Recover the amino acids of this structure.
């Protein structure tokens, strides 16, 4: 599934009205100047394994100042952009003040005053972020500007991870598009050297939230998510998901009502056919915290959360508090299946000996954030456990869409990541085969290399022209987002709608298929089809 910015998030004009939105504007004051500001900057900088990697040791300002001076000399010789030189001048200034005994905040304020007459506090924070970046990486951050209103910035894994890191650090019910957009503009993007001149609009922030998998949920009435009736969701549900499930169901055990109970009916299998057992995966990230009526709900809903929070798993000394009063952050990735409840192996005495569940404690002082690499490793283990628990059966592994999206791999085809022309900084993508649904039949089935002969990444224009599309004069990417329900408003959207870009086999699928099992993704926004989500409804 290829998702882009241009997609609407459905009915999107109802702002979150949770209790948190009222005090959103005050909530960042508590970070300014505290050591947690530095910690937070560090966690954004480290998000997604930024390049270059940070220095192991942070050198003192006297040494750094010498380096800044030599960077300046080089920069002036090479006539680099003024903004770059300005940053070095600011850094030199900052280093000097620090050596004179100024603390971080007063030093940043002092410089802000010298450079700007107004906007002092915001500018001072940018200076501190810049200084922290230099301390960590010993170079000035690269200047990137999102010419498309920030739309493509979210394709940057570092931005995604930093945004997720931030969102996860909030408690349930605190996430609002307003607060999120503000934090992106003032903290996350500047930290990553991605500041936009005008800043992202709140509606873009809301889209980002949705794309990151957050959706607005009212817990009181049970789990519901918007977007059920979006055309592509409907198409997938009715034409792909439901027929597939119907086909698999014939090979699954059925539980039919009889009297006051249910009776197990085994499937009738043909020669060589194996019984299928459905295994649902779900992830939750949560703080132990109170129930709110109206929340922006994390992709991996908090449901299991409550469930597990009250379990006896907190061990002494293991407590890792994120921030005061919020409780630690826990991430659980687990599988449920009908025979054993969860994906486990037990011995003859019924004692559990193997368990596919993985619990991590992410956050700045804990484990790394859960990502597709960890999920893929967990799947290896889960497959082995399944095969041991159910020899002679086929596992039907069912995942949320976000897992599919996340595990497309680093060379996935993503039209919105591409530039118009070949080469340059764009990511190199894997080769593809022009799909049989290509509108120009003469190109169907042809291998299409996504790198030019001299090894450069192929741009949108050539890629489309090789499929027969006439793209002369066509817009490259819509700004700020593509119009809703449009397939050829721009080159990026056009290419993203081609079947090879739309239907890419995820690494998850490949792994599961290669061991003879089945992998299926739930239609988007249909988390209620996943029984693990139902746990939600039973939490008081
Ligand atoms: Zn467009």
């Amino acid at each position: 599934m290829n998702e882009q910015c241009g997609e609407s998030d459905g009915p999107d004009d109802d702002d979150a009205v949770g209790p948190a939105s009222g005090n959103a504007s005050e909530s960042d004051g508590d970070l300014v100047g505290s050591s947690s500001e530095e910690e937070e900057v560090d966690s954004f900088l480290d998000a997604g394994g930024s390049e270059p990697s940070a220095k192991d040791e942070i050198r003192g300002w006297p040494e750094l100042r010498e380096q800044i001076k030599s960077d300046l000399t080089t920069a002036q010789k090479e006539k680099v952009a003024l903004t770059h030189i300005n940053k070095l001048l600011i850094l030199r200034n900052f280093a000097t003040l620090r050596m004179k005994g100024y603390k971080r905040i007063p030093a940043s304020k002092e410089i802000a005053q010298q450079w700007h007459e107004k906007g002092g506090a915001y500018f001072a924070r940018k200076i501190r972020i810049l200084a922290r970046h230099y301390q960590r990486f010993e170079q000035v951050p690269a200047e990137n500007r999102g010419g498309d209103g920030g739309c493509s910035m979210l394709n940057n894994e570092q931005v995604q991870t930093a945004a997720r890191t931030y969102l996860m650090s909030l408690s349930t019910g605190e996430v609002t598009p307003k607060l999120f957009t503000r934090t992106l503009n003032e903290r996350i993007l500047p930290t990553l050297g991605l500041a936009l001149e005008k800043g992202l609009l709140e509606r873009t922030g809301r889209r980002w939230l949705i794309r990151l998998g957050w959706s607005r949920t009212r817990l009181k009435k049970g789990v519901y998510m918007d977007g059920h009736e979006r055309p592509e969701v409907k198409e997938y549900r009715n034409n792909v998901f439901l027929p597939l499930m119907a086909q698999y169901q014939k090979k699954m055990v059925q539980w039919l009502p009889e009297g006051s109970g249910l009776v197990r009916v085994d499937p009738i299998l043909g020669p060589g056919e194996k019984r299928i057992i459905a295994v649902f995966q779900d992830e939750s990230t949560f703080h132990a915290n109170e129930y709110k009526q109206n929340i922006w709900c994390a992709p991996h809903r908090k449901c299991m959360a409550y469930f597990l929070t009250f379990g006896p798993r907190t061990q002494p000394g293991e407590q890792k508090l994120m921030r005061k009063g919020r409780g630690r952050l826990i991430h659980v990735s687990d599988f449920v299946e009908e025979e054993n409840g969860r994906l486990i192996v037990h011995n003859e005495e019924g004692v559990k000996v193997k368990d596919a569940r993985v619990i991590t404690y992410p956050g700045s002082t804990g484990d790394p954030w859960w990502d597709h690499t960890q999920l893929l490793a967990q799947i290896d283990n889960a497959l082995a456990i399944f095969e041991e628990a159910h020899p002679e059966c086929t596992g039907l592994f069912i995942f949320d869409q976000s897992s599919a999206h996340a595990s497309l791999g680093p060379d996935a085809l993503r039209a919105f990541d591409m530039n118009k022309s070949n080469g340059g900084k764009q990511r190199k993508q894997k080769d593809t085969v022009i799909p049989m649904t290509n509108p120009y039949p003469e190109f169907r089935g042809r291998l299409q290399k996504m790198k030019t002969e001299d090894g450069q990444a192929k741009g949108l224009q050539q890629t489309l022209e090789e499929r027969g599309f006439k793209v002369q004069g066509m817009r490259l990417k819509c700004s700020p987002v593509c119009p809703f329900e449009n397939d050829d408003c721009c080159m990026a959207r056009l290419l993203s709608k081609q079947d090879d870009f739309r239907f890419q086999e995820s690494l998850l699928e490949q792994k599961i298929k290669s061991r003879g099992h089945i992998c299926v993704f739930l239609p988007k926004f249909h988390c209620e089809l996943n029984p693990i989500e139902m746990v939600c409804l039973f939490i008081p």
